[in-house]
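User: I need a structural model of ABC transporter permease from Clostridium isatidis for a docking pre-check later this week. Nothing fancy, just the predicted structure tokens so I can convert them on my end. Input:
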Amino acid sequence: MEIKKVSKYFWSVMRKSLIIYYSICMLFLLLSALFTINTKGEVTISGGEFSTVIFSFVAGIAMFKEIFHFIKANNISRKTFLIGTALSIIPISGVMSIIDIIINRLYNLFTKSPTIYDMGFTDYNIVSGMLGEVWVQQNDIITIINTFLFQMSQYLMFFALGSAIAMIYYKCNKFMKIVVSISPVMAIIMISVYMYNYPYIANKITRFMEYILGINPNNVYAPILTFIVSFVLLTGVSYLLIRKMVVKEK
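Assistant: Understood. Predicted structure tokens for ABC transporter permease:
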């Protein structure tokens, strides 16, 4: 019953953001269609669903505090909070992926609009590099299912990442927030230095990253699995962060 309560509240909060977000997407679709007609279809819009990845990440950050205060006000356990949130974001991510596929196919009625999946796991790059060849988006059932799963798994992972980051910031004082903010930059610098000084290990890491992201060999199911596993791990990290979290004043 409590999980259902969390899910209903989560959906009520998320619904408003989704309506605003997809209203903007449809407006952009209309404006793009008009612009494309005026330019005789010479414009290419690629990877438009990446905006939903950003939306998922921001939603994960923005929604945590409000929902956390809700569960504490209603004496709901932290474990129930995470389960209810996870059970809510899974179908919502699926719905977002379906909507993004529909929007993308509408884009392709006016101009070339390859998805990230198209550019990474179909013949888009090969055809685009051939003179005189025109890329045509594939709409077979396998392409649709793979696109759906690829997008949905991304949305899940980035929402969980946003939530985990929001929890880290929530637990930190002002000084630690600064440390957390600059830590990604410092980590990138340290990794770059390490990879420069140890090229053999860097090559191993690069090959491993290419494998789990489906770059080499080209395999869409590798990143799908990677994103899903990352979602589960980040949810676990979130539980460790929230387990003894003290409620702060709004």
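Before docking, keep this in mind: Residues 2-38 form the longest helix (37 residues).
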